[in-house]
Amino acid sequence: MESLLIASRDCNLIDGMKSGLSDSFQIKPITSMSDFKDDDARCDLVMIDQNFNEFNGIDFLMNIISKFQVPTVYMSTAEDTSAISEALNVGASNFLVKTENCLELMKLIIRDTRRRYSEACEMQDSIRKLKEEIAKMSKDGGVTANEPAKQVEVNVFTEVVAILKSGEVNLPVYPSIMKEVRDLLQKGASIQRLSGLLQKDAAITAKMVSVANSAFYRGIKPTKTLHEAINRIGIVDTKNYAELISNHAMYSVKIPRYEEFMKVLWEHSLATAYGCQEICKHVLKGNQSELFTIGLFHDIGKLLLVKILSELEVRKKCDSSQIEKEWRMIIENYHHKFGCSLIKRWKLPDEYGGIIMGLKEKDGFSPNSHELNIVNVANLIAKELGFSTTGEEVKVDFYSNPSAKYLQLQESDIESIKLSVEELMSTCASL
Q: Which residues contact 182 (CB under 8 A, 6 or more apart)?
């Protein structure tokens, strides 16, 4: 059974927590600092009451955080929000306001705290690995006094890591409505239930009706309702359109230097997603819905890095001229690992991160991953159609491409897929 340390002088609170949590936790209460031994902190969670000592329990919280790797919850009265703010600033994982029904919320707070703590640990692990790569690059001679551009990259990237680790950046959030859609589809959604869910979002509803009336899907008579639109488009394509509509808002930025890049990044991501969708129809393998989403997110690390670099400029953490010189290099060099970290944070399937990292390898080919090869070919098709973040013209020899050969795609298949992607991109121009 997992263990829970409670630091509080309130015996009624301790008794209430024992009563409500004893079925899930082995509870160890302490009522004063003198009761605490280091072994007590070798537990799964620590909850610290504001009344634990004269310093509002903050000094004890700081001691726990500095010495032990354990999630912490700070408990405070509703009247003293400043204490909560201070606790969070020094590193508390979560907080609980002591109200009449707080014991009823305890299990939810604990579950949320452990989720947050796990996400923070994953992100710190990713940052640690990235910093190790930077250190290795320097040691191996990748950064020297004779290479000022590389040195600038390291300096800017160090700030990227620092602001991410400090939590001072607003990370992109996976739309909550898509979490609900994914859950609903896993249970086997009907058109009626999917329509009822998506109607919660006015933007998705309006745009889905517009898509259903586009040249690609147009029927004999116009579609007027979301239910009719889903019936015409189909459940799988509806999920895909809802995904792109709800995620499009993330591709906005206030720093002018990144505006055009974010526009083409969105177009490239969308074209890749459509490429995955159309390739699935030709090879008759793979989960079309999941591959559409993977295609849409295969470059999500670039979005995350642009958001972080924007924060650096707004907060004046780096000189603008340094960022101007190196931001594209940083994005190209590190977007795979950052994208993988964000996918983990969003709790999307592990295979998404595996495919993102697979695209980093030479040729993006794998003899063991059907899905990776589909995304790889879709990525190349998007670039050849002109949807590229580099702005450079790309020409791909699909006849000799390892991934295309693995998928047994003929030249006629590639041309058909290109035409469909172009038509779908035209359909989505107004979305």
A: none
pLDDT per position as a tens digit, 210-223:
888 888 787 778 88
Say whether 5 sits in a helix, a strand or coil: strand
Domains of the chain, CATH where assigned: 2-110 (3.40.50.2300), 176-430 (1.10.3210.10)
Sequence-distant (≥ 6) Cβ neighbours of residue 61 within 8 angstroms = 48, 72, 74, 87, 90, 91, 92
Cβ atoms 25, 49 nearer than 8 A: no
DSSP summary character for residue 41 = G
DSSP for 13-26, please give it. Answer: HHHHHHHHHTTTEE
Q: Which two tokens stand for residue 281?
A: 């129809």
Match 């488009």 to its residue by tokens.
233
β-sheet bridge partners, residue 7:
30, 48
Helix axes of 320-345 and 256-283: crossing angle, nearest 10 degrees: 40
**Which of 13-22, 292-301, 330-339, 363-372 has maximum average pLDDT?**
292-301
Contact 394, 388 (CB under 8 A): yes
Q: Which residue has the tokens 């001229």?
A: 321
Report the chain's terminal Cα–Cα distance, integer Å. 51
Query: For residues 86-99, b (16+ Cβ closer than 10 Å) or e, as one string?
Result: bbeeeebbbbbbbe
Tokens of 173: 């959030």
> DSSP for 60-76?
HHHHHHHH----EEEEE
Looking at every residue in the chain, the average pLDDT score rounds to: 84
Give alpha helix (H) positions in 315-369: 320-345, 350-358
pLDDT tens for each residue of 286-318: 678 889 999 999 999 999 999 999 888 887 777
48 pairs with which residues across the strands?
A: 7, 74
Q: Which one of 69-78, 181-190, 371-380 scores highest in mean pLDDT?
A: 371-380
Give this prediction's pTM. Answer: 0.66
CB 165 within 8 A of CB 317: no
